[in-house]
Write a structure and sequence with these properties.
Order of helices and strands: HHHHH
Radius of gyration: 21 Å
Number of strands: 0
Number of helices: 5
Helix content: over 70%
Largest sheet: none
Number of domains: 1
Distance between the termini: 48 Å
Structural class: mainly alpha
Strand content: under 5%
Amino acid sequence: MRYLIVLLAGLLAGTILSGMFTSALQRRNAYPRALMTVMQHDLGRAREAARVGQCAVPAQPRASARLRLVAGELGDVLAGEQRDRVLGQYIDAFGKTVAAWDPGAPCPAQAEALTAVANACEACHRDYR
C-alpha cells in the first residue's frame, strides 16, 4: 500500500512539474507568436479585400503600415542574439516584398504584391516553423 501511495505522489508531482515546464517554454515564445498572428491577420484581410475588389478601403494602408512595422521588428524578435545568415535573408526578403506593396495601387497589382508577401512568409516557414 505504501508503494502505491508513493507511486501516485510521484506521478502527481511529475505531472505538475511537466505542466509548469511546458508553460514556461510557451511564454518564452509568446512575442514572436504574437507578431506572426498580427502579420497573418493583416495579410489575410488585405488579400481578401484585394480579391473582392475593395482595395480603396482605409484598412489597406493601415495593414500596410502594420506589416512594414512588424517587418522592421522581425530581425530583433526572431534572430535575437543569434545571427543566422539564412534567417536574416528571409527577413530581408520579407521586408522588401512588404515595401514593394503599394496600398494605393489597383486591385490586381495589390493582389500580386500580396501574393508575393505571402510567398515570402511561406519561404521562411518552410525552413523555420
